[in-house]
Amino acid sequence: MSTLYRGTVSSPRRRECISADYGVQTPAASAQRLSSQVGERKLAPSAATLRTHLASITTFLASPPPHTERRTPAVVSVASGQAVCRFPGAPAHSRVSLSEEGLAEGAVASYSCERGFELLGPARRLCGADGRWTPDGIPFCGEYSLAEPAHRGG
Q1: More confident call, 33 vs 23
Q2: CATH second-level architecture of 4-65+75-143?
Q3: pTM for this model (two decimals)
């Protein structure tokens, strides 16, 4: 069983929503079913199509399906044969901004959380020459309450 990942990908030239599988290409039909759960969006047909746009991707906003375990892949090779990092992974309720290097060596992934959530873990990760993100591990966006603490009468 493959692990699906859904979210929106924004680039300077176009905005599209994808459903990408970390290890195996995802059929467009599966992507459409996921998209119907998150509202009106346009889809890239597969993870392979997504790889052709790696250099222009600047932001990845993720909302993974509930009750799924996500694998973080290490390396993907593009047509040139150059090893680059895969998407750095994104916790639920997060925004991941990629530097202008896209997913090549030296790229920086900066993490932030949606309102009402707090980032736990590294705020920045770097794509290394070996095609792996450092530090290891994807940060987590934990929910916090904005309610005032209860006061005890005395």
Answers
A1: 33
A2: Ribbon (2.10)
A3: 0.46
